[in-house]
Amino acid sequence: MKKLYMFLFVFILALAGCTDDSNVEEQAAESEGENSGGEDIDFSLLAMPSSLDPHAANDGYSLYVMINIYETLVRMNEDLELEPGLAESYEQVDDTTWEFKLREGVTFHDGSPFNAEVVKANLDRVRDPEVGAPLEFLFTEIEEVEIVDDYTVNIHTARPFAALPAHLAHPGGNMISKEVIDRDYENMEDGGQPLTEVNADPVGTGFFKFEEIAEGDHITLTRNEDYWGEPASPASVTFKAVPEDGTRIAELSTGDADLIYPVNPSDVARIDDTDGARVEQHESASMSYMGFNVEKAPFDDPDVRRAIAMAIDKESIINEMLEGIPAVAETPLNPTVNGHSDDLDPIEYDKEAAKQLLEESGHGDGFTAEIVVNDRTTSDIATYIQQELSDLNITLEINQMESGAYQEYTANGEHDLFMGSWGTVTLDADYGLYPMFHSDNHGAPGNRTRFANDEVDQLLDAARTETDEATRMQEYADAQQIIIDEAPLVPIYHSVLLAGINDDLEGYYQYPSSFPYLKNLE
Question: What is the pTM of this model?
Fold first, then answer.
């Protein structure tokens, strides 16, 4: 659109010599009116969302789009503090009851009202076993959602649950129009699959609203002119699927894209040296790792997993493959997360000890295994690990998949090993550990290693309801130490979020969760 506006401006000037002043002024005013409408932002992502239903999808690319359409009762501000969102206020009135006062006068994109009935419908749906929402784990502690009046709800938990506001701030707590939820249930009653109607017609209260989708190619959102708060600056945002890093960079350099994400660390200098473009860096709450399928031999043997963990030189990966940008990860939680501990004993790099442990486990002659990746960065790291493990007589066969196929393959447990990452969206240890390592969450909810340990389950269950913060943090530390020792995955690095952006744009922000905040782009 910037190019279009410049063309119109030049065209108007050219006409000045052959038209009267009033016509020129009229045309200029029309052009100025178009400019005042805000930018049309083109945002190139590696992949398209797997769903636009907040209760159905927990992959990054789905969340990047959905957070612009929907809103939550509680939200995290740019200072990383929880604050009221669609709730005007909230408070814990006793150990197991939270009262939420809702904003009045808020409407959904379809014109339907936001009220207590809507909140109950959403939180009941995400917990409904007939729906089978992958995001159910966020709200399993909720026992009942009570409508007090049109704009007050009490959320009752089975036990004390200190992390409830943080969980409600997760995109899984996004509020969907009740009219669309009702249609989804009607579809289920007619024999249809759950979680389909909302995906087809995503209706929220957010500052952008859904405009169109071209499957596998792009999704367009337009500004919600009736937004209850300050409206968005951009007139629209179009998310495009551009799987190749080089193609995304080329689009940024030619102006065909205003934003691109992700950026490979090895491409940062190239973009920064490009006229009219830059890379913005933001801290993350993520942990990138190599995961095992602990249900498959020989990875069902903790000694095999520990030996492989010992054989991976994380600092070399970061310095040689990632331009030294990320930080070494020794534990499952990023330092930005409440519950991270510096007092844990990590598995140290020691290739000779790794060989000896592999011999003792009966696998000194090595074996062949598949490792699944889904982009250039993970493919490059897998190639590096492939070389490292060849010293242990382990042959890795790298299988690069499209993002959606990768999600399904690893959720179904068909893999041997995989490269993955997890962002602790809530910045609280419960979300960083419970979906990743609790045995209730195998597959799509987050536990793609299929790890199961009774003691870890007990600690994570206890920490969820612990009201003493020091005790809660110790329970998380104890759980992390067991996880490190059992090695269902190898933490490799804590990433820095890298986005390529047009120099003409300001106001970009990216949460540590990796969610891009696009409302103030101009």
Answer: 0.79
